[in-house]
Amino acid sequence: MTLIDIATSSGATGEGTAYLDAATGQVRVRPGAITTADIGTLAGAAVGALGLVWLVYERIMPWSGALGFWLCWYVMFLVFYWGIARTQWEARHVREKLAAAMFTGAGVFVLVVLVDLIAYVGWRGEKAIGHGNFLTTDMQKTGPLDGLNSGGILHAMIGSLEQLGLATLFAVPLGIAAAVFMSEIGGRLARPVRTVVTAMTALPSIVAGLFVLGSVILTLGYDRSGFAASLALTVMMMPIVTRAAEVVIRIVPNTLREASYALGGSQWRTVWNVVLPTARSGLTTAVLLGMARAVGETSPVLLTAGFSSGKNSNPFSGQQVSLPLYVWNYVRYPQENMKIRAFGGALVLMAIVMILFVAARMAGGRRPGELSRRRRRQMARDRVRIAATHPARPQAPAVTPAPTAAAIIHPEPEPAS
Amino acid sequence: MTTADAGTELADDLFGSPPQGSGPGAAPAPADDTPMKIIPGVSRGDRVFRIAFRGAGLSVFAIMGLIALFLITRGAQALHATGWSFLTEQRWQTATHRFGVGAVLPDGIIIAVIALVIAVPVALSAALWISEYAPSGLRRTLISLIDLMAAVPSIVYGLWGLIFLTPRIIGFERWAATHLGGVLPFLKVRNGEVSASYSQSGFIAGVVVALMIIPIVCSLSREVFSQAPTGEREGAYALGATRWGMVRTVVLPFGKGGMIGAVMLGFGRAMGETIAVALIISPVFAITWHPLQADSNSISSLIALRYGESDKLSLSALMAAGLVLFTITLLVNMVASAIIARSRSGAATNE
C-alpha cells in the first residue's frame, strides 16, 4: 500500500485548468483552480439532493422538522456528490473532493449553530429590550403575571459589573504576576506551577462555587454576597489570564531584555519598563478574554451570590443578583413574559461578552513592540519639539575619523520628517 | 528561561565553573593572568521582586490546595456517614443516610460520552477545514468566531437548548426510538407515543454540551494541525499527494497526540458542565440506560439544583460529590496534558 495518494495530473482527472499563455506560447497548468465542472458538480448534487429529500421527507413520509430535513439533505448531498463526481473523475480525485465537502460541511455547521444561537437569543430578547423600562428598572415591584412594561435588569447589570470589576481587580494582578514568574523568573518551580495553572483552567466552575461556599460562607460565616461571588469568579478567571499572559510575555524578543540589562537595568526594572509595556496589547487581550469568560459564569455565582429582586449596589453586604443568575432564575417560571425577560437578560449578557471579545481582538491585533498609531504620532510630535528646542547642536569636531562604538549604539535622533 | 540564568550560564561557559567557596583561599593570586570572574549580583530590589512574584506563582498551589482542603473537610461528615458506599449508592436520601454518587456519576459520564460522540467528528473536521481548506483570507475571522463560540456563556447555551432545541429535536428522538430502538436496545423509550417522554432527556443535554465543547476541541486541535511541519507537507505534495492525501499522511499523524489530548480536555469540560445540563434535564436518581428517555442527572447539576438545602449533612454530601467531580476532572486533565506533552506535536507547542 502506498502511503500517499498520487493524483495524476492528466486532463482526464478534471483537476485544474490548462490554458495557452499567449505571451510565452506555453501551456500553463493551474492545478488548484476551480473549474466549471467543479461548480456544476457541487450545485447539481446540492439541488438534486434538495429535490429528492423534499419529495420524500415532506410529501411521502410522515416526517417533519427542519433539523431532520437538513440532516437528510446533507447525507443525500454527500451521496449525490460522490455519484456525480465518480462519473467524471478517478477515485482519488473523488475522495479529495468528498473530504473537502465533508470538512467544509462541518465548519459551516459550526458557524450556522453560532449564528443561530446569537440570532435566536437576539430575536427573543429584543421583545424585552424594546421596552424602555427593561434597562432602567429592577424586579422589586414586578410579579410573574405583569406585562413587559414593568420590571427590568438594572439590578442584575449593576451586580454583574461590580462582581466582574472586583474579580478583575483580584485576578489580573495575581494572574499577570504568576505569568511573569513563570516566564521571567523561572526556576525549578515554574514547571509545576504551569501544570497546576493548566489544571485550574479546566476546573469545573461549580467546584469553584462550592469552594467559596464551603470556605467563606459556611466556615467563615459570611452571608452570600457579591464579594463572595467575585472570589469564586477570581478562581475561574485567574488561570485564564495567567495562561494567556504567559504566552504573550514569552514572545517578547529577548534582545529587548538584554538591551535593558546592558544599560544596567535591574530585573525588576526590565520587567516593569521593558517586558510588560512591550507585551501590553497582548496582556490587554488576555485580561479582556478572562473578563469575557468570567462575566458569563453562572454556577460559581449561583452558589455564592444569593438572589435579590431589588437593587443592591453594595457588593460587600446583602445578596446580589447578576445577569446569568437573573436568566437562570426567570427562565424557570412558566409565564411567557418571564421567559422573555430571561432572553432579554441573556441578550444583554451576550452583548457584554461580545463587546469584551471584539475589544480583545482589536487590542491583540498588534505584534509585541509595534506602536499604536497614537503613540507613533506622539513620538513624531516629540521629535519636532526636541528639534525646535535644540535647534543648534554643538558641532562635532571637524576631524571625525570613524563613527565610534558609542555613536553606533546611540545614534543622534533624526530630524523630524 | 531567564536572562539572568542565561547570563550565569554564559559566564560559566566562558570562565569555567562558578567559584565553589567565597573564602580568600579560593581567589586566584593577583599575579596570575586569569580572567576576572563575573558573578552577577542580585540587588535588594530584585530580591524583593523575585520573592513577591514567586509568591504570586506559588499562590496557584495555595488555591488548588485550599479547594481540595475545604472540599475534604466540609465533605468529611457525609463521607463518614456513608463510608465507601458513597461511591456505589444510587439513592440520594440524606435524611436516612442513604446517598451516594452511584447513579449521578454514571449519568454524568453518559451525557459527556454523548457529547463527545457528537462533538469530536464535527470539531476535528471543522478544525481541519479551518487549518487546511478554508481560504487563507478567511482564516483569522474563522478562528475568532470559534473563540467567540467558546466565550458564549453556558447559560445562553442552556436557554437555547431548553427553548429552541428541545421542541425541534424531539421528532428526531422519536424517530430514532421507534425505528432504531429494535436494533439498538439502548435507544428504546418507555411510553414512546407521548412526546413528553423525550423532553428533558440526557440526549438533549448531551447535544447542548456537545455544542459547548466543539469550540474547545476545535481550537486546540486546529492549533496542533497548523503546526504540522511545512517541509513534510510540501514533501507530500511533491510526491503528488492530493490535499486529502497530505492531510491523511502528514497532518493527522503529526497531530494525533494533540487531538487525543484535546478530546480528553473536552471530556473533562463536558463532565464539569453545570448550568446547561441543570436547565435541561429533570433529575432522577437511577442510572439512565436509555438516554433518549426523559430524566437524567449529573454531579454538577445535582449540586446546582440542591445547594439551597439547609441542613448540614445535605450540604456536606454535596461537598463530597463535588470532591468526586474535582478528582475525576483533575485526573482526566492530568492525563490529557501528559499525552499532549509527550506527543510530537505537543512537544512542539508546549515549550
TrEMBL record, chain A:
Keyword Transferase among record annotations: no
Compositional bias ranges of the Low complexity kind: 391-410
Annotated TM spans: 39-57, 63-85, 97-123, 164-183, 195-221, 342-364
Record domain ABC transmembrane type-1: where: 157-360
Pfam family, one: BPD_transp_1
Keywords per UniProt: Cell membrane, Membrane, Phosphate transport, Transmembrane, Transmembrane helix, Transport
PROSITE patterns registered for this protein in UniProt: ABC_TM1
Chief place where the protein resides: membrane
Top-rank taxon: Bacteria
Compartments (UniProt record): Cell membrane
Topological category with respect to the lipid bilayer: Multi-pass membrane protein
Positions of the UniProt region annotated as Disordered: 386-417
Record-linked InterPro entries: MetI-like, MetI-like_sf, Phosphate_PstA, Phosphate_transprt_permease
Family the entry assigns: Belongs to the binding-protein-dependent transport system permease family. CysTW subfamily.
Function recorded in the entry: Part of the binding-protein-dependent transport system for phosphate; probably responsible for the translocation of the substrate across the membrane.
Annotated protein name in UniProt: Phosphate transport system permease protein PstA
Organism: Catenulispora pinistramenti
TrEMBL record, chain B:
Domain ABC transmembrane type-1: 105-336
Protease in keyword set: no
Recorded topology in the membrane: Multi-pass membrane protein
SUPFAM superfamilies per record: MetI-like
Ranges in a coiled coil: none
Composition-biased stretches (Low complexity): 16-31
PROSITE patterns tied to this protein: ABC_TM1 (PS50928)
Subcellular location(s) of the protein: Cell membrane
TM spans (from-to): 51-72, 109-130, 142-165, 203-225, 274-292, 313-341
Chief place of localization: membrane
Domain of life, per lineage: Bacteria
Function: Part of the binding-protein-dependent transport system for phosphate; probably responsible for the translocation of the substrate across the membrane.
NCBIfam families from the UniProt entry: phosphate_pstC
Protein name as it appears in the record: Phosphate transport system permease protein
The organism's taxonomic lineage, starting at the top: Bacteria, Bacillati, Actinomycetota, Actinomycetes, Catenulisporales
